[in-house]
Amino acid sequence: MNAEHIGIYARDPVALSRWYLDKLGFKVVRTLEKEGRPPIFFLEGEKGLVIEILPTTSSLVARELSDPGYSHIGLIVEDFDQAASSLQSKGVSLYDVRATSNGWTIGYFNDPEGNRLEIVYRPS
User: What is the CATH number of the domain that holds 117?
Assistant: First the structure.
């Protein structure tokens, strides 16, 4: 078995999909449309991660990083400073940026719907 995609519900799937395209460089690989309903988008990142954006009318409940269940989506980068600078130049604010005891560098940010993402650099 292998993970195929991650599903994220969004109050505005069109706007959230556009954010992933504009800020993170994802590409739309599939769109499912049903008359009278907002579309469902499948977005793919450059390393193959697929995110499915589905419509909802519910609101996100704020969660702490250490709460049980979903925590974040981790995105591996080859150059942390370049990735952080690129995100910041697109208006994305990083928080809790730090070097870990195992030599990784990580930083978190949120998409417009409040879903937490992480960029992580792991030296080879």
Answer: 3.10.180.10
Query: Can you tell me whether residue 122 is helix, strand or coil?
Result: coil
Within 8 A by CB and 6+ apart from 3, the residues are: none
Span between the terminal Cα atoms of the chain, in Å: 26
Q: Which residue has the tokens 């930083």?
A: 107
Q: Is 86 found in the same domain as 51? A: no
Tokens of 98: 């730090």
pLDDT in tens, 71-96: 899 999 999 999 999 999 999 999 99
**Would 102 be classed as within a structural domain?**
yes
Two tokens at 118? 């992480």
pLDDT tens-digit profile of 26-68? 999 999 998 988 999 999 998 899 999 999 888 766 677 777 7
The structural domain count of the chain equals 2
Q: Do 98 and 105 meet the contact criterion of CB atoms below 8 Å apart?
A: yes
